Structures are given as C-alpha cells and as structure tokens.
Amino acid sequence: MIASGLQIYGAYARFGERGGPYYAPNPFQDHGFPAWSRLGGWLAGALNWHFTLMWPLIVGGLLYLSYLVASGEWRSLLFRPRDIRGAIEMQKYYLRLRKDHPPQGKHNPLQKLAYSFIILMGVLSVITGFAIYKPTQLTWLTALFGGFQAARYWHFWAVWIFTGFLVVHVLLVFIVDPASLRAMISGWYRGRFPSHD
Predict the structure, then answer these.
(1) Rounded to whole angstroms, how far apart are CA atoms 155 and 124?
(2) CA–CA separation, 135 vs 125, rounded Å?
C-alpha cells in the first residue's frame, strides 16, 4: 500500500493549490520518490493496487481490534491518564536518567502509549483514506478533515508515522530482545508460552 501510495502521491506531489487554497508544509514538496519504491507504474495502476490492498488492511485491522475486545487484551494495551507518570519514569529509564527499571505489568506505560497511539494512527489512515477515496459520496467526512487537500495531508502523514513506528519497533526488537520477534510470530517465547501476568 505504501509503494502504491507513493506512486499516487507522485501524480501531484504537493498539498495545496489544486483543489483549493489549502497549504501545508511538506519536506517532500515537488520531489518524487525513486522508481524502485513505487508500485503501479502510473496513476491508474497505482490506484488499482491501492484500492485492492486497502481491503485486506481494513479486514486485518478489524480482526485485530475484535480480538483485543473479545479477549480483554485491550485492558493491558490501553494508555490511560494514570499511566502518564509511569511513561515519564520509563522514558527517564530509557534515557539513562534513572538507574532502576520502573515497575510494570504486561506492558509498561510507554509501551501502552505507543500501542494506543499506533492504533489511532491506523484508524486515522483508514478514515482519511476513505475521505480522499470518495470525497463526493463522503463529503461530510472529507469536510471533517478540512477538505480534500487537508485530508490528503493527514492521510500522508498518518501513514508515514505508522510506517516509522513499524520500522523503529522492529529495529528495537532486534536490538533489545531478538527472541521476542519469534514470539510475535509463533506465540512462544524462549521455549514457553508468553505469560499474561
């Protein structure tokens, strides 16, 4: 989806002027992405790929959210106001400003913040995607994001934040605890089923 999105973006690599007066800063303004990073070959081909791949993304996301609700796992992932102090202390620990590891449950408060935020970014990516996919049929949704160009802007950055999180998350897994990568895929951690305590 990202590769086809880059091809779509290349058809009009700016946020503003065409389709309204909206303008937003963009470090990629008027710059294309390399051919190897794009999918579709041209605008119509990229749109076909993008609109086809959006459905598995949406279905996978809905299945994941359904699992979180049905299993009760959402309780251990949801960041709440009471977690703010713990997130600050965990950040101090990661920055080596605190020597001892703060107490935590299944996930520490900073992890809860990251997971809650990334779920919101996923939802925002889908909603803004629909706002620019069907701006006439979903006028109210497109207007909610400030119009077509603004919705494009929010979609673009929500996807980049989502992608950045994914890359950093996987890198941290390799750096901090490589065995957890196997656990993410298999459900087993160092020869045993992960604890839910």
Answers:
(1) 7
(2) 15
Question: Which domains does the chain possess?
Answer: 2-186 (1.20.950)
- Residues 184 and 172: their CA atoms lie apart, in Å, by 13
Distance separating alpha carbons of residues 7 and 50, to the nearest angstrom: 10
Q: Mind listing the pLDDT tens digit for each residue in 71-113?
A: 988 888 899 999 899 889 888 888 888 888 887 777 888 888 9
Q: Which residue is listed with tokens 């990073």?
A: 37
Helix (H) or strand (E) holding 191: none
CA–CA gap between residue 74 and residue 179 (Å, rounded): 24
DSSP string across 87-135: HHHHHHHHTTS-SSPPP-SSS-HHHHHHHHHHHHHHHHHHHHHHHHHST
Among 124, 150, 127, CA closest to 138? 127
Contacts of residue 156, Cβ cutoff 8 Å, sequence gap at least 6: 5, 9, 15, 26
**At what angle are helices 109-133 and 84-94 packed, to 10 degrees?**
110
Cβ(20)–Cβ(149) below 8 Å: yes
Q: 105-135 pLDDT, tens per residue?
A: 778 888 889 889 989 999 999 999 999 999 9
